[in-house]
Amino acid sequence: MDLRITSYFLILALFSSVGFAMPADKNSDASLQTIAPSREYNFNFGWLFKLGDNPTYSEATYDDSGWRNLRLPHDWSIEHDFDPTLDGATAYLPGGIGWYRKYFVTPQNKSSKRFYILFDGIYNHSTVWLNGKKIGGRINGYTPFYFDITEQLATAGSENVLAVRVDRSRYIDSRWYPGAGIYRNVTMVAVDPLHIPIWGVYVQTPVATKERAEVALAIEINNKRAAPAEFVIETKILDANAKEVGRAQSTETIPAGEAGVFQKNIAFNSPRLWSPEQPALYTARITIRQGEHIVDRLDTRFGVRDIYFDPKTGFYLNGVNTAIKGVNLHHDAGAVGVAVPKDVWRRRLESLKRAGTNAIRTAHNPASEEFLNLCDEMGFLVQAEIFDEWDNPKDKRLNQWERHSDRISRGYADYFQQEAEEDLKLAVKRDRNHPSIFMWSIGNEIEWTYPRYKEATGYFDMNASGNYFYNPPFISEQEIKGRFHKSEPGQYVLAKTAAKLASWVKELDTTRPVTANLILPSVSHISGYTNALDVVGYSYRRVIYDYGHERYPDKPIMGTENVVQWHEWKAVIEREFISGTFLWTGVDYLGEAHGAWPRKAVRSGMLDLAGFETPAYSLYRTLWSDEPYIAITTQTEDKSLYKRDGKQKVVEKTPGDWQYRVWGWQDVNRHWNYNKNELVIVEVLSNCPSVELFLGGRSLGVQSLADNPDRILKWAVPFSAGALTAKGVGECSILAKIETAGNPVAVSHTIDHKKLPLDGESVAHVEVQLVDKKGRPVSHQDVVIEFELADELELLGTDNGRTSRMERYKSTRLRTSEGKALLIVRAKASATTPPLGAAAIKTIDLEKAVSTKIMGSVQ
């Protein structure tokens, strides 16, 4: 039997109300899950894929028996070798054109249902055909979209073929790695002709106090029946334990072929308010009934919470002044590219949460629905960003220069005028019920692309001294205005575009402020740009917080893109009017590495590409978390940023240099292996007021934060083998230790899920650490290792976290970095797996299914 036949759907009694059947092969929809009863179905399994292009691929009769069988989400770029002949802006990985096809059988009850196909994101320039007929597509790779496919379906019981063309031939159309393919979830929606449309419920909480919650719902209902429909709308509010806390019910009528929006207001007492510390969630369960028959039911999750920005005192969540401790995140996750399983995001977010992070900016595009669901559940505030380009393009290779020499680096700006409104509204409508989202960002560093903004700043004159990052404007506000308006009076098109985007957001949601990330705020304030913004975000401009607040005291200001250094947070906590910051970045990301081979990514994160903690992570854990914490790093004096002065005190080689550090952390090691008596600078990061350092049992003295304005405690220590231990002094009873290690002889494993269900969904991370013959971690030497996997596991990728690792991710062999490496695996679907995740699903023991051996010599 060929692959096309094995992809047919078998009608199952479990789905008799809808009639969708599931593919028979083990990598197909054998683990199909419903999101809501008889309404939404996982459509990720049983797809066929081919890289290349041919117009016949869209035809229903095309023979695709030789195509690759896979499950979605899928990113084809990340599967390839890194290629130095390509451009580093998109991580030296290829684009191209790819096709996807999927077979399914029309349900027997087709005449009594409406059917929709929902794509959460396809990167990019997608076109969709059903049974050989084009039904639409999307240029923007981050926009969710859907189609009503009812009229295009084959007759009941007959076969359909869905074909999707993805054109990423403009492979440098982004300034970072965007991936390629159907990289987010696909859902089939089957509903009665009388139904709540996709994203048809809008939930607001106009009153959100500890004493009382008022929930306002706007419920859209479509009547695609041939006759008028009378029905009952029943709305229940359920808490996290499915206990009903409020309800409303009414009888309504909609004429044939029309739609209506119905307002429901439900109040209840003593709500659990949503916050990062307590991310309490409620469900609005909306049921449409006719008599005893349930026509449609939709569950919409939301949170009860109140947000407010005060221009003088900052951000308030549920009436509590709250510092925004945020990070920026791109949408890739290292080895898995942009097709990121939920468990991979969960691991990364858990690490950021431990450091005290409470907010995320989705730089620079709408995130996946799955990612936002996690933020709701785990308690992260989200600034949801929508666009990186507006009317004018950004140069993908050289950033600020904004020039282009070829088609392949042209991006979304070419389509902005025709596509922006629909793209924005699709994203906002999908996401406006997420309690995690507390701001909408309409743009990122847009000013570079418009005439006169850069010149008006005065920073870039040949005769201007000083540096843009560290100085307020060199010219007066009046001169900035004069420069900006010298050739054209009044507002320029940027301000008009900003006003238009903000108004589109507020057509759909008035409960959250609109912001943007401003790279040239001294000009944007006078150009009319900030008139469109409720909150003004400053990008790398902490040095003009005071300048902005003094001149525009009625505008809330915060940092929306800042480096992971102490001086950024210091600037926030010293100013009550600054609500917080979003650091660049929470995690290292692929791309933005033009001309940097062999480097495929940017090292700016609190976590590296593999999700391992960096020294920058340790710094911010000492700043953002109250839990006592200590981390130790070391470096030889000649390579260190520090030296001994004449009094043998450790000082900066360049005094005050810590105030000017930007992206990336200084070169340090996390081991204690040097030559005997070699002078080593020991750096300790801690939130303990004082820390004592010991080598063996001998004290090397106490250092205090009060005596170190850069918040790095430092000792100069002649090396001798043993254990280097840093201990908190007094009530801060915490310690950290690194030991001199021998050569690596074995590998230890840490597995986050030791047993995985064979469901085709579940993912596990296997972290490995080299150890010596005494079991001590080895971080000063690296070797080549190889993973061996049981047949039941699918390799998603391996990584060591290094931006300079240029071997493909889909390899079981790699070199460790600092003695560590990561394996990401997914359990395949068992051929005997019961449908819908029944309790009888088999599991696999990862401790037996994964092994590692040392292959290469010590380095």
From TrEMBL:
GO MF, any single term: hydrolase activity, hydrolyzing O-glycosyl compounds
Species classification: Bacteria, Pseudomonadati, Pseudomonadota, Gammaproteobacteria, Cellvibrionales
Gene3D superfamilies cross-referenced by the UniProt entry: Galactose-binding domain-like, Glycosidases, Immunoglobulins
Keywords: Glycosidase, Hydrolase, Signal
Signal peptide: 1-21
Protein name (database record): Putative b-galactosidase
Residue span(s) of domain Glycoside hydrolase family 2 catalytic: 314-446
Species assigned in the record: Saccharophagus degradans (strain 2-40 / ATCC 43961 / DSM 17024)
PROSITE patterns for the chain: GLYCOSYL_HYDROL_F2_2 (PS00608)
InterPro entries given in the database record: Beta-gal/glucu_dom_sf (IPR036156), DUF4982 (IPR032311), Galactose-bd-like_sf (IPR008979), GH (IPR017853), GH2_Domain-Containing (IPR051913), Glyco_hydro2_dom5 (IPR040605), Glyco_hydro_2 (IPR006101), Glyco_hydro_2_AS (IPR023232)
Superkingdom of this protein's organism: Bacteria
Gene Ontology annotations of biological process type: carbohydrate metabolic process
SUPFAM superfamilies (alphabetical): (Trans)glycosidases, beta-Galactosidase/glucuronidase domain, Galactose-binding domain-like
DUF4982 domain mapped to chain residues: 680-729
All copies of domain Glycosyl hydrolases family 2 sugar binding, residue ranges: 95-189
Domain Glycoside hydrolase family: 750-832
